[in-house]
Structure prediction request, 511 residues.
Amino acid sequence: MRITDFFDRGWRLNRNGAAFVMDERTYSYTQAGELSCRIAQALSANGFAAGTKVAVLSPNDPLGMICVLGLWRAGCTWVPLKADIPTAESIDLLSRFDCELILFHSSQREAAQQMAAVTPSVRETICFDVGLEPWLAGHPATDPEPPHQPDEVIAIMATGGTTGPSKGVMITHRSMSAALTHMLLAFHYPENTPIVNLAAAPLTHTAGFLAMPALTRGGTVVLIPRATPDGVVDAIERHHVTEVFLPPTVIYRMLELDDIRQRDLSSLRYLLYGAAPISVAKLRRAIQVFGPVMMGGYGQTEAFGSIAYLRPEEHFEDGEIASDRRLSSVGRPFPLLRVGIFEGGRELTAGESGEICVRGDNVMAGYYGDAAATASTVVDGWLLTGDVGHVDDDGYLYITDRKKDLIITGGYNVYPAEVENVVLGHPAVQDCAVVGAPDADWGEAVTAVVELVPGQDVTADELIAMCKAKLGSVRTPKAVDVVDSLPRSSVGKVLRREVRARYWAALEQKI
Prediction:
């Protein structure tokens, strides 16, 4: 089936109901559905054939989601661009992913024009919230329904690399459909229950994918610009939100609101947390404050959005909040995939630790234009996640380490090499290792450990300011530590894992 079939099911169930709400704007299912059909017809009529790569550059906005539905109806491939990353990075993605069209929000006009001017593959830019109607004039509100196959690529999602540029994860009708089916199974609702999904995190991140199950059931997706603690709580109260995804950092800040226990959050059925490790102590407190609504999730872009989940009831044992061990689990694997723990080519048994590997319909089709990286990541049908962990006798999955050097901070992926390259650009820095240090709020805090050129000096504030200007706030180090020498291998390579281990060992000593 096509991915738009999920939305169309909700359209049939709730034709006049609200599909998207943001501020004072509401789009019914019929308005959203017909607009997406007209966008699809216009794309086809203007020569953007099936398979064309179309970038959408937008902050959270209903029209951005409707554009994605439209390009999918036309058989095009969605390339999500983040509005808060440096323009140069977006230009690189547009070029390497062969994008031909940019659909942009008016707030991103300058960036979109700059991208188009220097990217040869881009042949047109269209502002979708101001002046779109002339482009759509004369195009019918009917679905063009181009021929399709389950394994056609419908999205290319950028993911970083530790030693090179971001790779493009190819998502197909099949892989996204399997992931959405997982979510429909996880988010159970009795018949005739109103469903209201809150899209608080960026739609280019997990929130966009998690809006689709609600739409499939004829529910309403409420969008807010960003996931601020007050904004999230206000939206839950105002719109009677039943489900929301939040990274742990936002949950921590919500718990610190002075009036959080007095706010009416009784409509919530599912508060999904994930994308970063969560503090067990703060998870326990969240259960006490928000009630039996917490649901853990573990996934990767390459195993689209869904590997394992910890259901709300699994946060309890014998009527009490579960043990720290259970709460530290990412849950049991979803049903439409298989999880194996491997070491040295051998599948391990319960309790043994090794690399977490996944096979199933939700696994990516590969990395766009990178056969070598695909071959090293998907082996004999198994996706090698790069995460290390084990499964216990009850089938619960635990992540104990990362084989890769990925830092997950506040729900966002940060790749050390990207930050190191910037830090090393300062003339006073001789060498550098960037690691994730334990942090109560962020899960991991990006930390730069530097050796200085003899006789040179630089302050932490200077390096942090330089990184923020070039990388944005998420990837900027929260701290800079200066050391006499970094640990190195026999050939002089900095041993980043040893640097990281020192921070985590210090934490264990405190415990």
Q: What stands out?
A: The radius of gyration is 23 Å. The chain is about 30% helix and 25% strand.
